Amino acid sequence: MASLATNAKKHKVCVVGSGNWGTTIAKVVAENVKENDEIFDEEVQMWVYEEDYQVPKESKHYDPGSALSTKPQKLTQLINRLHENVKYLPDIALPKNVVANPDIADAVKEATILIFNLPHQFIGRICDNLKGKVIPYARGISCIKGVAVSEKGCELFSDSIGSKLGIYCGALSGANIATEVALEKWSETTIAYDPPPMDSRQPTPAGTPSDSPRGSSANLAELSTELSGGQLSTAKGTKSKGVALPAEYPPLNHINMRKLFHRPYFHVHMVHDVAGVSLGGALKNIVAIAAGWVDGLGWGDNAKAAVERLGILEEVKFGKTFFSKTCRTETFTEESCGVADMITSCSGGRNFRCAKMSVKEGKSIGEIEERELNGQKLQGTSTAYEVNSFLKTQGMEQEFPLFTAVYSILEGKNKPEDIPQLVER
Ligand SMILES: NC(=O)c1ccc[n+]([C@@H]2O[C@H](COP(=O)([O-])OP(=O)(O)OC[C@H]3O[C@@H](n4cnc5c(N)ncnc54)[C@H](O)[C@@H]3O)[C@@H](O)[C@H]2O)c1
Ligand SMILES: O=P(O)(O)OC[C@H](O)CO
Description:
This protein is an alpha/beta fold. The protein has helices spanning 20-35, 67-70, 75-82, 104-108, 123-130, 157-165, 178-182, 217-223, 254-261, 274-296, 300-322, 329-334, 336-348, 350-361, 365-372, 380-394, 401-410, 419-423; strands spanning 11-16, 40-47, 52-53, 73-74, 98-101, 113-116, 139-142, 147-150, 153-156, 168-173, 187-192, 226-227, 231-234, 237-240, 266-271.
């Protein structure tokens, strides 16, 4: 049996993305790699989309006597010098083992664990850049809330990342407003990781269970039909399982993945339903816009609750209709990535807040996003368009009245005031 003591190599982590959530997750994993240094290398690379940034006068880092403050600087240099992402996660100290890197190929080159965490509109191009540059036996976790709609249909980012890069990729999603997690306020999250059976070697000590509370390497083997060419069978055809992890590395099973993300303030529940976890995070962003609109109209909590109820129903229906073989209703109704994320997103999320302001001020959500978010990106508006274009190809717009209503309102064909009539049974 493999023993951690005999694992000559450690896993190196790279976070691909450094926005509000990307930087928060880099902080979380950087704390954990230090505490689990028998498994993980101490340095966490964080790929940063480079830009020049002027430290604002109100920042505690502003020093009128220093050139660093009086003219724009490279964001990576500011992060590495100040140990703070002054633009996307201001006033949160980052552990010193987070290293910002503007060169994506260099950032990923030694990583056996890749955490994808950037606005969903950018991931396709990033993966194209990364092709052939990642370690073939690397494993991925997608923290991206969105879906990839193309001529192929509606794909989960875990699947599209996995197939583009030839690696296995799971998903992390939950009721996780980034600034609250960064401030170490307690929250829960869900990680769906259904790795190839070959990853489920036993960690030491002997007898330690090798998988999640809900699974075992044995039932993983039953769940996963191994096909030739490095593919696992899934509801949507095939997804990459990557290449076997060399024996010198500690196994990347549920136990070790949980060690990378779980904190006293960030409680992780491991599951196998990658589709449900990914869809909960993506589709609630559409619903949060509707919730923001009805709240902005001053319609009160009952109206917002009605929108959230419908949102959960449409999430479940979407999963069951289009990802029927793998998606579990319980993922939406019991896990943080489902109902809890719906509630938090419809209370304090950016999509909710910007939609609410747009109604109150009579401005477009895009204008409000530009004005309020300092470069952060809403995911709900583009997801509403992408999901609608997919539903149209399926002839199923009417089956998802809330998602369709949000699209119609964004398109200017209806007004937020029309929502009750548009969703009436
Ligand atoms: N912020 C949150 O509270 C939160 C919480 C949970 C999940 N999420 C999800 O995490 C994902 C990442 O969100 P975020 O909050 O970290 O991002 P963000 O909204 O802060 O977006 C800004 C990021 O986009 C990058 N960017 C801008 N232009 C780019 C380009 N052309 N190419 C590549 N990158 C570019 C910026 O450098 C910056 O890192 C999203 O899918 C989001 O839904 C966010
Ligand atoms: O700020 P939002 O609307 O992108 O939502 C943030 C998180 O997804 C909440 O879990």
